Amino acid sequence: MTTLPIEYDDERHVIEADKVGGAVDPADRRTTFADVVTRTDARRPIVPAALRNPDARRALVRWSAGYGGHTALYHLTRSPKYAAKVAVYAPRGAWRVSASVIWWAVGGRENFQLRQEAASKNDPHTWQQLDRRREKASAARWWVVGAGLVLLLAVVVGAGLAGMPPVGWYAAVVGLVLLAAHYGRPADRPIVDRVTTKAAFTKLTGEMVRAAVVALGIGVKEPGQITFPPPGIHKDGPGWLARFNLPGAIVATKVLESRDGLAAALRLPVDQVWPEVGPDHPGQVDLWVGYQPSSKMGQPRWALAGDTARTSIFEPQPFGTDARQRPVSTVLFERNVLIGGQPGSGKSYAARTLATIAALDPTCELKIAEFKGTGDFLDMAPLCSTYACGVDDEALSTGRDVIAWALAECERRGERIKRARERGEAPLGKVTPELAAKRGSGLHPVFILLDEVHELFLAYPDAADMAERVAKRGRALGIILVLATQIADRDSVPPNITRCVVTRWCLSVGGQVENDMILGTGAYKRGLTATVYQPGVDAGWGVITGNGKAGSVRSFFPDPKTAAAIVARAAQLRGQVIGEDVERVEARDMLADARAVLRPGEAGVPWAVLAERLAELAPDMYTGITADMVRESLARYGVDSMDVKVGRKNLKGARRTSLEAAQQRREIEAE
Amino acid sequence: MRGTITATGILLVVLLAYAGSCIIRPFRDCWLCDGRGHHRSKRKSKLSRPCRWCKASGKRLRFGRRLWNRVRRVHRDAAAGARIAR
């Protein structure tokens, strides 16, 4: 059987209502007074939204001035060309106008074709009859023309007698000449040139969608197999939304997998075509096609880029936009975020939008460590209580210290929350906005951002364990952990951490494996595919889960000037750096230290003595160290616990020979 | 030279005016009956006889228009013949 086009026409839809049972709709009734007074219809504002806010007013004035100025200059530079055109068209227009007036007055158009037909057939009787009709119809027209001319003359004489200034005469002449030129120009040749080029505009039709999906070759054989549930293709934001059902058991992810194929079939750039899984069933696709490619559409202004911006991490704040240009917000409090993506996917900027929200909250402490070493957050450094940048030992150990501090802070905050709860200030055992804002409560929010965190976890595996504990415990205590990484595999970012982080934002990745490492196993199959984004082209785009509805989000990307203004605003809000730097614990080499504290001539030293001497050598590091701790630490280097003769007694301790052997071994291994 | 141009110009204007009159007023008065459509009778009592030259209409097609109609007809017939031949 061949499928006729009518069977899948847009107008046709099958109603599958269950016809069993009686009427269930309530009967219509008259509107009562109570109905009217309780109406909650939204009243439209009297003053348009664009004029209510001083910023918007200023923007409107600025736009009008810019547009008007450009138009004026544009036409001014082309005025000689316009003058030449007018000189050609005006006489023609004058001739056309006068000829058509005369032609009308003589009734030339009355049954013109019939008269010509009569003349062609040499039928004088008919012609004479037709000509008499023409005469009758146009009998009074000369009077009208004459009256018009007399009126014109009267106006001109009147103006002359009233003493019209020469400017007026010139204006009248110029006006008449322009009017004549208007009638004299060919219909397709405007006298003035076009000032603006309108952006290209794409309209999505059902035919286009059907043809494109069939062309994908995912099992849809005929265009008619695709159905559009009501209301069909419609406008949604700055684009079209086509919600359609795939036939049989073909799932929407098949379409999502070949987003670029779909774009090719639609003859549109890839960043104009945004397929998603539809809301009703897995075989439904929500295809959103913008009027323009998103790279050309720009991004709406970021609400946080204003001069008066101020945020609170307890309230939803915008950090990105979805494909339909709607802002996407998040509440940072109680949230840990994992941002993943290949190089060039816009990870650092995505993390930066979150850092901006935190920076504009004047109660929030910032700790930023980036292990890329290019200074992506350098301008925010003055706002941070701790800032580290680089892949060197110093930066990495600072990163570790930050996590260690956060873990210790969790401990301290737990106590504080407990006390606050006893006082009735923290009913849920969580930090509240009031507690966070209270001075000296020690419960202000802390925003910790670790960019390229895999560097840190590879260098210090213990940092990963601590980070996991911070992610688990810090949530309710106002400690926000944001981790950005290129790779989220088992070695670089332990799965335990990934599991503890609720919000995952996967920017452009290479394949399904990486996608699922960040978004969780099975995400790809559910249609959460960040593989559709291309690095560079789609920078900032990513799939976010654990922040409301899972979907595509593009981080805001303020230009350098705006970014600087935001940082300046944050600095102004804060006044001073919130919080204190972490204590930098200088990493010491215990083996070398143990070797250094051996006095000349000593063959060995007992553990207790060694501990004392180490504490003397570097009180910062070794205060409180016990004999057992020294033994355990040195055992890692292969220093055995052996008998050391002190006076007449034999005590367990480290021998010079074994210390030296351990040092040599390490040197050999290092080479 | 100047005379030739002037003469050509005048000729052109006259030709255009004549062509215009062939469109706007394609008929002129019959020269035989002076546009009356019938001949004057010799005797007062007898009815005048109709003009056979203008078929009693008193109007005759202008020469230019007659020529033009002839040209159009020839063209039309030739075009129709060509269509049938094809």
Characterization of this structure:
The complex is a heterodimer of chains A (about 675) and B (about 90). Chain A is of the alpha/beta class and about 675 residues long. Among the domains of chain A are: about 80-185, no CATH class; about 320-575, 3-Layer(aba) Sandwich (Rossmann fold), CATH 3.40.50; about 590-670, no CATH class. A ten-stranded mixed sheet of chain A has the order 6-5-14-13-12-7-11-10-8-9. A four-stranded antiparallel sheet of chain A has the order 1-2-4-3. In chain A, strands 15-17-16 form a three-stranded antiparallel sheet. In chain A, strand 16 (about 640-645) and strand 17 form a beta hairpin. The two termini of chain A are about 75 Å apart. Chain B has helices at about 1-25, 65-85; strands at about 25-30, 60. The radius of gyration of chain B is 20 Å and the shape is flat. Chain B has one domain (about 1-85). Chain B has a two-stranded antiparallel ribbon with strand order 1-2. Chain B has about 90 residues and is mainly α. Chains A and B meet through helix 5 and helix 6 of A and strand 2 and helix 2 of B.
